[in-house]
Automatic annotation (TrEMBL):
Residues spanning the signal sequence: 1-20
Stretches of the chain forming a coiled coil according to its record: none
Domain TonB-dependent receptor-like beta-barrel: 259-718
Membrane topology: Multi-pass membrane protein
Residue ranges constituting the TonB-dependent receptor plug domain according to the UniProt record: 42-148
Xref: InterPro entries: Beta-barrel_TonB, Beta-barrel_TonB_sf, Plug_dom, TonB-dep_rcpt-like
Native source species: Spongiibacter thalassae
Protein name, as recorded: TonB-dependent receptor
A Pfam family of this chain: Plug
Keyword entries, A-Z: Cell outer membrane, Ion transport, Iron, Iron transport, Membrane, Receptor, Signal, TonB box, Transmembrane, Transmembrane beta strand, Transport
Location of the protein in the cell: Cell outer membrane
Family label: Belongs to the TonB-dependent receptor family.
Chief localization: membrane
């Protein structure tokens, strides 16, 4: 009966958003999105989608999805060590290592980014950012169980256009960026963009006085567009970006529980942080360096009865990282993480209409190949770990968790066909068939002279690597070949009703698929795919001559083998919760009652939880030698990054000036609130969750000289609220560390546009 009532209730509402509507008029402007791989009006697109255009991206200092979290329902963003973790409607993933896959697919100009560490390129020179909520298994396919994010770059212009922007802000932030765009010949256009952003960081390493949390970023984009004929266009986009910073700036929160591997208290003084929560007290100032190069070649051919698009891309990404796992001012466990990958992808999209446009169709083929190496090397100080040596011996255990010659190959074919069987009704059927294989040479070894290791610690080493051969611990595995393969068929059914241009109602059912993979710290171990089945019904409505837009959604998810990250002593592994589910409601409202006032409201409710899941918490083991932790039934516990409710209210004021020098000013006041957020499956512990909190932001803009000269200022997190955005755990020493969000920040930008 409950399922029947829920199914009936699904006919009530559904969702999209018009964040990108930047109208200064009382009618909210039309927003064009690319969510279906074809341009279309946001209000006519039967997907729960939010979009933010270039003007608001610049005005609100948005360069990544982290800045959109406060505006998009059921979007959660966090970082650990410079690697972003994105969740939509409770679906995401927290694995920064190896060939683990995200749950939200991120695309730049229709090219899927294989690793979230390369996502920084997506923040440069964007025309629009689109966030699609819910599984996108047909058109987007792999890794879109939670949704997809599209970063759409600004194309070269037909007329000359140039702009330069400089900025300054809190904690030494300095920015400069600019672009030059226009025709090179009658049929050839170009656009060149450059940016540099430096920031000292909000925290201090109390151990040595270093500033922490800062970044130094430099990037450029070159875009060329050539009209070979009236119907054939070639576009080339090239990106390069480097990011360096002192991440992760993590602080331990349960110092009183810190122990040696033998379970004895770790009683050394001065381990914790005093004062600012953004400070650290660490013997190792962390470092993260990333470099990403991306090249995209797009061919678009528009024939009389069909359109053909070819999208070819190459990506090179490199990450180097060194940080302290224990996050204390003693050398207990450090870690080195190196990642290097080369990716090639090719997609063909063929679309058209039949029978006087009563049938629209899309056919596609996709190929993806990612090659790379991942090395995760923990460095363990034997003396500190055991706590048994009265005189330091200098015994350091070096573990190598290495995935060499990783090859991930994905192939897919997909199709969507929609039939307008009545002028008000449309039926859509879609499907995608995917094949994916992953293979790697896996090495997991330890090297140490056991004569320098306290005798009590040797059993620990034998639980990790074995056997002990003489005085050197032998390889646990070396270049061990592991290969896994997966296939999936993911259908989609949808019925929509559009009685007029202002009302659209749709009901849909679709499946999403995320492949399994290979463990980075367990020889020969792999994990299985995750699948989700989604039912959703929606309404998109505009009233009062488009002054009021109401977009809402209600949805129900059922997950099979939901992938969960588990800390396993020294390493990490992926396990599966057999069943999980989610029920939610989203509503976004935009109201423009006056030329000078726009109001936007975004609300969400989400009940996403484990239905069947048994796991044990390594914190319950008294020491590393004993495994007495009782398996726990985690049924009913919330999924990671799935708060029960969130809400955002924005007020936009536009004040015109009757002056040749000053044209207009804009003020935006913003409030965001959220319920508690879980970061691990054991979120009943205070250390593994963030309690509910509220944030307030303010933005100001002044347009002058016919909008050529613009001044913008912002203050984010006005009340200086302290909250966390990530957690990582070291079970081996009973320690949990948290990553804090930025405190209050402010900035001022000045830009001038040439034409």
């Amino acid at each position: 009966m409950n399922k029947l009532l829920f199914t009936l209730s699904l006919t009530f509402i559904a969702s999209t958003s018009a964040i990108a509507a930047e109208g200064r008029r009382s009618a909210i402007e039309e927003v064009v999105v690319t969510a279906t791989k074809r341009d279309g009006n946001l209000q006519d697109t039967t997907i729960a989608i939010s979009a933010m255009g270039a003007e608001q991206l610049e005005f609100r200092d948005v360069s990544s999805l982290s800045d959109m979290q406060n505006s998009v329902p059921n979007l959660q963003y966090g970082e650990i060590g410079g690697v972003p973790f994105i969740a939509v409607r409770g679906i995401g993933f927290n694995l920064p290592l190896g060939i683990g896959e995200p749950g939200v697919a991120v695309h730049v100009d229709n090219v899927a980014l294989p690793r979230l560490g390369s996502m920084s390129t997506a923040g440069m020179d964007m025309r629009q950012i689109e966030v699609l909520r819910g599984p996108q298994g047909t058109v987007y396919g792999r890794n879109a169980t939670g949704g997809a994010a599209n970063f759409v770059s600004t194309p070269p212009t037909q007329e000359f256009d140039a702009k330069i922007t400089i900025g300054a802000g809190s904690e030494g932030r300095q920015t400069v960026e600019g672009y030059l765009s226009g025709p090179l010949t009658d049929r050839f256009r170009g656009r060149f963009f450059y940016m540099k952003d430096e920031f000292d960081g909000f925290g201090i390493n109390e151990f040595n006085g270093d500033k922490v949390g800062g970044t130094a970023t430099e990037g450029f984009r070159a875009a060329l567009s050539l009209d070979l004929s009236d119907s054939l266009i070639i576009d080339l986009n090239m990106y390069k970006r480097t990011d360096t910073g002192s991440d992760p700036t993590a602080s331990p929160v349960n110092i009183e529980e810190l122990t040696t591997v033998l379970g004895t208290p770790f009683l050394k003084p001065g381990v914790g942080v005093s004062g600012d929560p953004n400070n650290i007290n660490d013997d190792r100032t962390p470092f993260t360096g990333k470099e990403t190069e991306l090249a995209i070649l797009t061919l678009s051919w528009g024939a009389e009865n069909f359109d053909l698009k070819s999208i070819s891309a190459k990506i090179h990404h490199k990450t180097d990282q060194y940080y302290s796992v224990d996050a204390t001012n003693y050398f207990i466990i450090d870690a080195i993480r190196d990642e290097d990958s080369d990716t090639f992808s090719q997609e063909f999209d063929l679309s058209g209409s039949l029978f006087d446009a009563s049938v629209d169709w899309l056919l596609g083929a996709f190929y993806f190949q990612d090659k790379g190496n991942t090395n995760f090397t923990p460095l363990l100080n034997a003396d500190e770990l055991s706590g048994t040596a009265t005189t330091p011996t200098g015994g350091v255990l070096v573990l190598d968790a290495l995935l060499e010659d990783q090859i991930n190959i994905a192939k897919a074919v997909f199709s969507e066909v929609s039939w307008h069987f009545h002028e008000e009704w449309k039926f859509l059927v879609g499907a995608r068939y995917s094949e994916e294989t992953k293979k790697a040479l896996q090495t997991f070894n330890a090297i140490i002279d056991s004569s320098n290791v306290p005798a009590a610690l040797l059993p620990v080493l034998n639980t990790v690597v074995s056997p002990v051969a003489g005085s050197v611990i032998s390889d646990s595995c070396s270049e061990f070949s592991t290969k896994v393969g997966f296939t999936s068929f993911d259908p989609k059914l949808e019925l929509s009703w559009q009685p007029n241009d202002e009302i659209l109602v749709y009901v849909q059912n679709q499946r999403g698929f995320k492949a399994g993979g290979i463990s980075s710290t367990e020889c020969g171990e792999s994990y299985i795919p995750e699948k989700v089945n989604s039912s959703e019904v929606g309404l998109k409505a505009q009233f009062f001559d488009n002054q009021l837009t109401i977009n809402s959604a209600i949805f129900h998810y059922e997950y099979t083998d939901y992938q969960v990250l588990e800390y396993n002593g020294i390493g990490l592994r992926v396990i599966s919760a057999p069943k999980a589910s989610g029920v939610g409601v989203e509503s976004e409202i935009m109201y423009a009652p006056k030329n000078w006032l726009n109001i936007d409201l975004a609300l969400s409710y989400l009940d996403a939880k484990y239905d069947e899941f048994i796991d044990e918490d390594g914190f319950e083991n008294p020491n590393f030698f004993t495994d007495v932790a009782e398996p726990q039934d985690l049924s009913g516990m919330p999924l990671n990054r799935a708060p029960k409710y969130t809400g955002n209210l924005g007020l936009n004021l536009f004040i015109p000036f009757d002056s040749r020098f000053v044209n207009e000013s804009q003020i935006r006041l913003e409030a965001y609130t959220t319920d508690s957020v879980a970061f691990t499956q054991f979120s009943y512990k205070d250390s593994d969750r963030q309690e509910g909190y509220s944030l307030y932001n303010a933005y100001f803009g002044l347009s002058m000289l016919d909008s050529k000269l613009n001044v913008r200022a912002f203050v984010k997190n006005i009340t200086n609220k302290d909250y966390i955005i990530g957690v990582f755990t070291a079970d081996i020493i009973h320690l949990t560390s948290q990553i804090h969000a930025d405190p209050r920040s402010y900035g001022l930008q000045l830009s001038y546009q040439f034409d």
